[in-house]
Structure formats: structure tokens, C-alpha cells
């Protein structure tokens, strides 16, 4: 009986969850014991005076035992049940780990290390046990979670050095043995026999003989396939063992610090394995393997380069320079290497339950055996290479050769398989993901490991589809989009804070130059939005969101370096200010992308959440940056501080943190976008398909109105800190600057549902009246300057204005889909109902992006208007009167085109009959 079918009866039950999570915890403890020599071996090497080769053999010996024993333990798990075999394995390993303390010379340590290696055999037992609790469609994810127990290597690196320094290596061995013993007891008492074993006991069936279990091992593809695992797992184990020794030798770290840094490699190489199965489902096992191998080729090549001194015979004599990788760079590259290794491990093991559902233990055992042998052979080879070459980086030479050969071999095999299939007229989609599985690839496996690709069937207006899974997908994309957009706004508006601090740290820029720096991100961001608004439909929302988020690193890092030297030319700051516009451009593509995911009845709320919480980035930057620049958050890596003098008071600032503080969050969000978001096939459209919006009258009207709301929000956000410093120099308004954007962003986020319920047009009408009142309040406050209440009135009027802009941002965007549903029905009468919905959604998304692009010019014109007004008249009043006249025109335009009786949205927003094109069922 197939083990893939047996678990259906217990699917989702509490026994299933306990089996998975207790197995994962038990494997974590076993893995921590299995790699114990990575830490205690360093001290033993010193005590016994071992050579590098002897040390490599010592740390690799447990890996040898754990690898060789995996095959028989996996078979026993299939025959007699994983629960009993797992418990027996942990008890045996606990005894042998405790006996390690009795070793006294090199041969006895090698003998004891063989016994400790029993813990590594637990992998094949756990794979067989966990797989039998889950149906085929969930086994990849379940095994990925179980495999994350590799993080035990990081547990050892974090905890063992501290214990060893305080109490000695023997105490480490005893504590690890005790942990295994306790885990064995807990596992046995709290888990149950797997469903396959329970069924056999109930029916009196005997386990299959050893010969039957070994049958799949006759297939050559099992052995060829195992070679992949030799690198993705074997090299992982080898590096987990070798890195502490490497870090001590190359960077001179102590054992505690080396263990902590080594864990930075082990953690991503372990915990992300749980996600690797999901990614294999989404993008295909072949693509995951390509990612793994190609990134590993790059990383191992970088790590292979030893510190080198160069002398070039130049025109004026010898020119010398050196190249070497610092500790931080090493950590980053190994982190990336470990992350992609984790994906490769999941992709490899995902094949086993698909192709060998009844022999998971036996096949998993042999694949794990070959992979584990990599963990035994490679550390010995690393030590031997060190002895032979005297170069620490030689270990990465070997890994580079291994992964380069594997990459070429896999690619050539895939291309050969595809060419043969094409010659025989076989469809490419019927082929296996990896060529070595072709002899046993049948109808049952066809497409099981292939990429799902973009979502082909997306019908959010269909309530059954929406409730059956569409809502969950849409919300996941929304909540990944939000932090990406928040960071985009933060980078876009960071100059609004930085420019106010530049004079105090020694930059001799005039007020006009400072206003230009505050204005230019708005100019470039608005211009980029015009192009960005069309990009999701051309490239796909997932890809474009990822690229756009990565691009934020350019201005963030550039600013961090530029502000550290007051001699930095002004033109460099102008370039960096323009590059900050990359963050501004992201809004258009983000909103266009998210609009595709939600039905009309929820678009307003979804767009309000995305934009409103994204707009919080303005508030975040104005709150976080003033705090971040007051402390050396990044230590020596962040550079030296600057001395700032304001009103005769001298303080220390790290102005570079204004850019650096966002870097780790940008990286994390970019990864989340790539691995967590979706593309929708029906979203794809060329620029010419979307260019129809330029012929739509209401596109230009909405550009005017959205410039009034969002243009004001972003423009006042950029101008307020500097304007306040000039008008009220006695007040430290920078501490309060974040409140305005915060109020505007939150009001936008909460206004979405009201706009869906009441109607965007009606709310927009009253918003512009409120904004006019806010401007008059600001003019009144400036007129009473010198009065103690002047600044409170000024600040309160600005807060009121920000709140109104936030509500208006939500209401105007709610109007656009409703407008286009009616307009497409009128302008394209030849389209059927489904085509009208599709066309109106595409046009609405493009208009949302385009209007946001035009409106973003407010980030340039408003600060520049204030600067020009102050330069020409000595005050800001002229600019404010111009804004007031503009808001009055928006009130009139909203009333005439949309809210008056006979206006386009009047019937919809006053409970009138909905046109056929807007029926939710469509």
C-alpha cells in the first residue's frame, strides 16, 4: 500500500501536527549533537596538537557514521515504524555522546566520534516517519519543515562556545547528551505510531522484507540524483563544521565570536528549507536547482579569492594595491550561500515522496547517505588542502569546482533531454523537471514538480472564487506590498529630514540650494511614475516590485557615504536627490499591481490600505531618522560620526544612518516580494494596450483632482520641516514633523471602507472644501506671527490639512474604478460583460498609476513654490494663496463632472440603479 494514501484519514488531526513538530524539534537536537565537534573540536585540536588534516578527519568522523547508518535506519523506519526507531536512535546517540568525555587520545576520540555520529542517522528516520502522516500534495512542505531541523548546527554554534569557555568541552558533551535523552523520552511519550504501521498492525500484515526495500536502489537515477544532495547538503554540513576554525584562522576571532558568526551561515541554510518546498511548487524544482547552483557558483567564486597584493608598473612608477574580503562581506556572502543551499535541499527531497511514495525511508536514506558523505569527505579535504597549499581559501576552491561541474552537468542533461523530446514530438510540459528521473517518470508524476507560473484563472468578482482562496492570495500580495511601498516613501522623503541637518554638520549650502535638494526627489519620482505605472502589466507585478525595491539600495547607500564628508560636491547631492525619486516611482507600479487583485467592492479599501500604510513611510522617515542619527547604530561599519553645532550647542551625529538604517529592511522586503508575491496572467498588457487611457477624458480630470490630494500630501510632507525651520527658527519643529504625514497616512488607510460605502465622489467634494479651510488657517497663523499662539495654530492647521489630504487620497482612487466601469461600457459597446470588466480593470489600473505620477509632481512644486515665494516676497503667503485657488478649482471640477445631479457618479453614489457593467457577478 502506498504510504502516500494512508495518511488521509488523519489529515489535519492533532496527531499529525504533533508528529511533524516533535520530529522537527527532535531532529534539531540530533543535528546539534551531530555537529558538536565544530566547536569542541577546536579545543581538542589545541589540546592534542593536531594538524589541519587530523582536525578535518576528527570533525568529519561523526558525519561518516551518521551518513552510512542512514540507509539501514531509513529501511527500519519503513519496516518497524519511525516512532520506535527515532527513539532508539536518540537514546543510542545520547549514550555515545556522554561516553565522549572518557576519550584521552586521538584514536579514542575518533572512536567516540563514530558513536556520536549515530545522531545524524535520525534524518532518514524522520523523513520516513513524517512523510507517512501527510498526503502527497503536502509532503513537500512537511518535509521542508522537518528538514529545517538543520538549524541545530546553529544552536551548537550559539550555545556551545559560551558553555565551553565557562566550563570546558566535557560539560558541553554532557549537556548535549542530556538534551538528547530528554528529547527521546518526550518524543516517545507524546507521539503515536504512523498510520502505515498502525494499519499493518490492525490487519496483521508483516513488514516488507529487506530485499524489497532495497529494490529502488538498483535504479541508477537514485544515485545520480544523490549527487545533487552531495553539494546542497554535504557542503552545508562541511561548512557548518569548518567555519568556526576558518574564522579563527583567517579573521582572528575567538571561539565564541566565531561560533556566533558561523551561525549566521547555518541559520538561513536551515530554516529557509521549510520554505523551499513551497517555492519548488510555485516556480518548479528545476528553477530552484538552477537558482541554487548559479548563486552558489557566484558565492564560492567570490569566497575563493585569497587576499592578494598587486604591484602594477605605472607611468610614474609602481602602483600597489590589495584585494581582500572583510569579515562583514564574508558573513553576507555566506548568508546568501546558505540561503540558496536551503532551497536546493528542499527541491531535491521534494522528489522522493513523488517518485517513491512507498520507499521514502530507503530512497531518502541513500540520498541522505551520499549527501552526508559530503559532510565527511569535504572537511578532510579542506584540511588536506590547507596543509598542501597553505591558503585558507582553498576550501572554497574545491566547492567552486564541485558546484560548477554540477551546474554544467545538469544544464547539459536538461538540454539533451529537451532536444530528444523535440525530435520525437514529445511536449515539453510532459517531461520531468530533472533528466535523471526520466526512466521512472509517468503520468502520476507529470506536472507534480513543475512551476505553477502566473495565476491563469483570476476572477475576484466571482464570490465563490473569492471566498475559496482568492481573498487569501490577494491579501498576501497586499501585505507584502505594504512594507515595500513604505520603504519606497521613506527613501523618497529622506531628504526632507536630511537637508535640515546638513548646515549644522558643516555643509555650506544656501536656503535655495537646500530647497532644491528637498524638491528634486519629487521631480524625479513623479517623472519615473509615468513609466512605472505601466510596468506591472508589462513585466508582471512580482518581478517589478522586487526590482523596484532592490533599486532603493542605490540612494540609501549613496546618501550614507556622501553625508560623511562636508567636502562632498553639491552636484553629488543633486544626483542622490534625483535617485531618491526611485522610491517615489514605486507608488505608481504598486497601486497598479494591487488594483488587479481585488474586486470592485473592495478595491477602495485595498488601495487605501496599500497607499495609506505605504504613505506612513513619510512619517517613519521623519520619526526614525532623527533618532537613528543620534547613535552609532552600525558601529565601525557605519563610519565616523560628525560634530553638529546648532545655536551654539555642539552634539554628535551619525547623519549617514539616515540612509543606512533602511538597508536591511530593503533587502528583507525585496526577498519577500520575489518569493511571496504572485503574477496574474490576465494583467499582462503592452504599453500600446494601456496607452488608450490618454484618450480618456476622465484620466486627465482625475490627474487634476489627485494632484490636489496626494500632490498636497507629499509636497507638504517634503516642505514642512524646512518651512518650519525658516518661519519659526525658535521651535524645534523637526521633532513634530512626522505627525503630519502620520495623520495623513492613517486617515487614508481608515477612509477606504467609508469611500466604498458612501462613494468617493461625494467625499472628495468635501475634502477639497476642508483643504481650503486648512490653507486659510495656515495663512491666519502666519499673519499673527510673533504671537505665542502662532505656531500652535500653524501646526494644527497643517495637521488638519494633512488629515484632509489622506481622506482625499483614498476617495479619489475609489472613484477611478467606478468611473471606468461606466465609461468602458459606454465607449466599448462591442465588448461582452466579461471583456468589459477586464478592460475597465486594466484601464483603471493604468489610470491609477498615471494619476499618481502626475500628482507626485507636488513633491517638487510645493517645496519649490515655498522657496520661490520666500526668495521673491520674503514670505510663504503667495504660494499659499496659489494653493487655495487650486483647491477651489478642484471643488468645482468634482461637483460638475461627478457629484451634481447628472454627474457621472451621482446615480451610483446616491443609490441609483447600477449599470450592467458594474454588476458584481461580472
Automatic annotation (TrEMBL):
Q: Does the keyword Transport apply?
A: yes
Major facilitator superfamily (MFS) profile domain residues are 18-418
Question: Has keyword Amino-acid biosynthesis?
Answer: no
InterPro entries in the record, alphabetically?
A: MFS, MFS_dom, MFS_trans_sf, NO3_transporter, NO3_transporter_NarK/NarU-like
What are the coiled-coil residue ranges? none
> Its topology with respect to the membrane?
Multi-pass membrane protein
Task: State the UniProt keywords alphabetically.
Answer: Membrane, Nitrate assimilation, Transmembrane, Transmembrane helix, Transport
The record's CDD domains line, in alphabetical order, gives: MFS_NRT2_like
Q: Where in the cell is it found?
A: Membrane
Transmembrane regions: 20-42, 54-73, 110-131, 143-167, 173-191, 222-243, 255-276, 288-305, 325-348, 360-385, 391-414, 478-502, 514-532, 544-564, 570-592, 613-638, 658-677, 698-720, 732-751, 763-782, 794-816, 844-866, 878-898
Pfam families with a match to the protein in the record = MFS_1
Membership in a protein family = Belongs to the major facilitator superfamily. Nitrate/nitrite porter (TC 2.A.1.8) family.
Name it. MFS transporter
The scientific name of the source species is Falsiroseomonas selenitidurans
Amino acid at each position: 500500500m502506498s504510504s502516500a494514501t494512508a495518511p488521509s484519514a488523519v489529515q489535519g488531526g492533532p496527531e499529525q501536527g504533533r508528529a511533524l513538530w516533535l520530529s522537527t524539534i527532535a531532529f534539531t537536537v540530533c543535528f546539534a549533537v551531530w555537529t558538536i565537534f565544530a566547536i569542541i573540536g577546536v579545543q581538542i585540536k589545541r589540546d592534542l596538537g593536531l594538524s589541519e588534516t587530523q582536525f578535518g578527519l576528527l570533525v568529519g568522523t561523526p558525519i561518516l557514521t551518521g551518513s552510512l547508518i542512514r540507509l539501514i535506519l531509513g529501511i527500519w523506519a519503513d519496516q518497524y515504524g519511525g516512532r520506535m526507531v527515532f527513539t532508539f536512535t536518540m537514546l543510542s546517540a545520547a549514550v555515545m555522546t556522554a561516553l565522549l568525555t572518557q576519550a584521552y587520545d586521538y584514536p579514542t576520540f575518533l572512536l567516540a566520534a563514530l558513536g556520536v555520529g549515530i545522531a545524524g542517522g535520525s534524518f532518514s528516520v524522520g523523513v520516513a516517519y513524517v512523510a507517512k502522516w501527510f498526503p502527497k500534495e503536502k509532503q513537500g512542505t512537511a518535509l521542508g519543515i522537518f528538514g529545517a531541523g538543520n538549524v541545530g548546527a546553529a544552536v551548537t554554534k550559539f550555545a556551545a562556545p559560551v558553555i565551553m569557555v565557562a566550563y570546558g568541552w566535557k560539560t558541553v558533551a554532557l549537556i548535549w547528551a542530556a538534551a538528547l535523552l530528554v528529547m527521546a523520552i518526550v518524543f516517545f511519550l507524546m507521539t503515536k505510531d504512523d498510520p502505515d504501521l498502525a494499519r499493518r498492525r490492525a490487519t496483521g500484515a508483516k513488514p516488507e522484507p529487506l530485499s524489497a526495500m532495497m529494490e529502488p536502489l538498483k535504479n541508477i537515477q537514485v544515485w545520480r540524483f544523490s549527487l545533487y544532495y552531495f553539494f546542497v547538503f554535504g557542503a552545508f554540513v562541511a561548512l557548518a563544521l569548518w567555519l568556526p576554525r576558518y574564522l579563527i584562522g583567517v579573521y582572528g576571532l575567538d571561539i565564541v565570536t566565531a561560533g556566533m558568526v558561523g551561525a549566521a551561515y547555518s541559520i538561513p541554510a536551515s530554516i529557509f528549507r521549510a520554505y523551499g518546498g513551497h517555492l519548488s511548487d510555485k516556480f518548479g524544482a528545476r528553477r530552484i536547482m538552477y537558482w541554487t547552483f548559479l548563486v552558489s557558483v557566484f558565492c564560492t567564486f567570490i569566497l575563493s579569492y585569497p587576499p592578494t597584493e598587486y604591484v602594477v608598473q605605472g607611468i610614474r612608477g609602481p602602483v600597489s594595491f590589495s584585494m581582500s574580503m572583510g569579515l562583514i562581506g564574508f558573513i553576507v556572502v555566506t548568508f546568501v550561500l546558505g540561503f540558496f543551499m536551503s532551497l536546493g535541499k528542499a527541491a531535491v527531497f521534494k522528489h522522493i515522496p513523488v517518485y517513491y511514495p512507498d520507499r521514502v525511508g530507503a530512497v531518502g536514506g541513500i540520498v541522505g547517505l551520499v549527501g552526508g558523505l559530503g559532510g565527511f569527505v569535504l572537511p578532510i579535504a579542506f584540511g588536506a588542502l590547507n596543509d598542501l597549499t597553505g591558503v585558507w581559501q582553498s576550501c572554497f576552491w574545491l566547492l567552486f569546482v564541485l558546484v560548477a561541474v554540477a551546474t554544467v552537468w545538469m544544464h547539459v542533461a536538461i538540454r539533451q533531454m529537451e532536444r530528444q523530446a523535440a525530435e520525437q514530438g514529445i511536449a515539453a510540459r510532459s517531461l520531468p523537471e530533472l533528466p535523471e528521473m526520466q526512466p521512472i517518470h509517468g503520468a502520476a508524476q507529470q506536472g507534480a514538480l513543475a512551476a505553477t507560473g502566473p495565476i491563469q484563472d483570476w476572477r475576484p468578482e466571482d464570490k465563490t472564487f473569492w471566498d475559496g482562496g482568492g481573498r487569501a492570495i490577494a491579501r498576501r500580495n497586499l501585505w507584502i506590498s505594504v512594507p515595500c511601498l513604505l520603504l519606497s516613501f521613506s527613501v523618497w522623503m529622506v531628504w526632507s529630514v536630511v537637508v535640515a541637518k546638513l548646515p549644522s554638520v558643516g555643509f555650506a549650502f544656501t536656503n535655495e540650494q537646500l530647497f532644491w535638494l528637498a524638491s528634486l526627489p519629487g521631480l524625479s519620482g513623479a517623472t519615473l511614475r509615468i513609466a512605472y505605472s505601466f510596468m506591472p502589466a508589462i513585466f508582471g507585478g512580482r518581478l517589478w516590485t522586487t526590482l523596484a525595491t532592490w533599486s532603493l539600495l542605490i540612494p540609501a547607500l549613496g546618501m550614507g557615504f556622501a553625508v560623511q564628508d562636508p567636502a562632498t560636491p553639491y552636484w553629488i547631492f543633486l544626483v542622490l536627490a534625483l535617485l531618491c525619486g526611485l522610491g517615489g516611482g514605486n507608488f505608481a507600479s504598486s497601486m497598479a499591481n494591487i488594483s488587479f487583485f481585488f474586486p470592485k467592492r473592495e478595491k477602495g479599501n485595498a488601495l487605501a490600505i496599500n497607499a495609506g500604510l505605504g504613505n506612513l513611510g513619510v512619517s517613519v522617515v521623519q520619526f526614525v531618522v532623527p533618532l537613528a542619527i543620534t547613535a552609532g547604530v552600525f558601529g565601525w561599519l557605519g563610519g565616523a560620526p560628525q560634530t553638529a553645532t546648532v545655536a551654539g550647542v555642539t552634539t554628535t551625529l551619525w547623519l549617514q544612518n539616515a540612509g543606512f538604517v533602511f538597508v536591511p529592511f530593503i533587502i528583507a522586503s525585496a526577498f519577500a516580494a520575489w518569493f511571496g508575491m504572485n503574477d496574474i496572467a490576465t494583467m499582462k498588457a503592452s504599453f500600446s494596450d494601456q496607452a488608450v487611457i490618454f484618450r480618456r477624458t476622465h484620466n486627465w480630470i482625475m490627474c487634476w483632482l489627485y494632484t490636489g490630494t496626494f500632490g498636497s500630501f507629499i509636497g507638504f510632507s517634503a516642505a514642512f520641516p524646512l518651512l518650519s525651520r525658516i518661519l519659526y527658527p525658535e521651535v524645534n519643529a523637526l521633532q513634530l514633523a512626522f505627525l503630519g504625514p502620520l495623520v495623513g497616512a492613517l486617515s487614508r488607510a481608515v477612509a477606504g471602507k467609508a469611500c466604498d460605502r458612501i462613494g468617493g465622489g461625494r467625499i472628495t467634494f468635501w475634502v477639497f472644501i476642508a483643504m481650503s479651510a486648512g490653507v486659510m488657517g495656515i495663512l491666519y497663523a502666519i499673519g499673527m506671527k510673533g504671537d505665542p499662539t502662532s505656531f500652535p495654530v500653524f501646526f494644527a492647521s497643517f495637521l488638519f490639512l494633512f488629515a484632509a489630504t489622506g481622506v482625499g487620497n483614498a476617495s479619489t482612487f475609489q472613484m477611478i474604478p467606478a468611473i471606468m466601469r461606466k465609461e468602458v461600457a459606454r465607449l466599448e459597446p462591442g465588448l461582452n460583460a466579461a471583456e468589459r470588466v477586464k478592460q475597465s480593470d486594466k484601464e483603471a489600473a493604468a489610470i491609477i498609476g498615471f494619476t499618481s505620477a502626475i500628482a507626485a509632481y507636488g513633491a517638487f512644486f510645493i517645496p519649490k513654490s515655498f522657496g520661490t515665494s520666500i526668495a521673491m516676497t520674503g514670505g510663504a503667503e503667495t504660494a499659499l494663496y496659489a494653493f487655495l485657488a487650486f483647491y477651489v478649482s478642484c471643488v468645482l471640477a468634482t461637483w460638475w463632472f461627478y457629484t451634481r445631479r447628472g454627474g457621472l457618479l451621482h446615480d451610483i453614489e446616491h443609490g441609483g440603479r447600477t449599470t450592467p457593467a458594474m454588476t458584481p457577478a461580472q
